[in-house]
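Researcher: Here's a chain I'd like modeled. Treat it as a single chain, no partners, no ligands.
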Amino acid sequence: MKKINVVIAGAGSIGCYVGGMLASGGANVQFLARPRIKQAIEQNGLHLTDWTGVDLHVTPQQIQVSCDESIFKDAHMILVCVKSKDTQAMAESIVKSGNTQATVFSLQNGISNTDTLKRSLPKHTVLPVMVPYNVISQGDGHFHCGTQGNLACQSHERAIALQTLALQANLGFELKTDMLSMMWGKLLLNLNNPVNALSGLPLKQQLETRGYRRIYAQCLKEGLQVLKAANITPGQVAAVPISVIPYILGLPDWLFKRVAQKMLAMDPAARSSMWEDLQNNRPVEVDYISGEITAIGKRVNIATPMNERLIRLVKHAQDTGLGSPNLSPQQILNG
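Model: Modeled as a single isolated chain. Structure tokens:
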């Protein structure tokens, strides 16, 4: 049986975790990475852990890492894991490599990445994949997954091979027929990312604090309102319908902790990717998350003041370059 070549386009936290897990299950995985990441992986391999106790090591000999786009040439699957702002450039790199046969999977935040890839890669099958969990780099090739969930991919005959590799690696992977609605549902859940990034707290501690939850709830209410006006129906990606979550978030702390046990089922140290970006002075993706809601709000003439406030505060923190500003709920509301 011919070996399937899997290339991870973007060796960040999600790319290294998913790619490393696939390699641990026996897949032939290669990474397109920046020189710093290439050196770290070649020296240390990958150390993969999660909040349930999984602890795996992938040796440097099990994977190949390159900084050159020619690594795409013979790929059968390309998993795009770059930030949304880099999607177009990554698509152009795939074109330049001469690859015409790979199935391309977008494992990215936001809504528009799949369409961006399709426009530049008309000969390829491009499929969206929703990543439900948070992965943080611990340094020296160690990547820790702090929350739960299964990857979800658009149902397609060319997705079955990736699902098989994922399941061999004990990496949950589901095929769905309604991925666009699920992506909108995931985007709404991700409206907490800027709240977490600004708070500087672990996700669990932040969600257990009613002041932060009220801010998140207001973001969700704005998002639900503008999506309804735009005739967009978000899918259910949590234990309860997304429309119920703002009311749960508004409960007193003691009751919230009882009602939202599944929401709080995570590593106590788990953080959002936006927090990690601020800490490492990397560009944040707030325009591709909260910005989607504010843009639709403008089109349908509905105000989205809380989401706009968070965008402004996160961008200010990014420009300052000092990591999370560690704002209290009141400081966010006054910002």
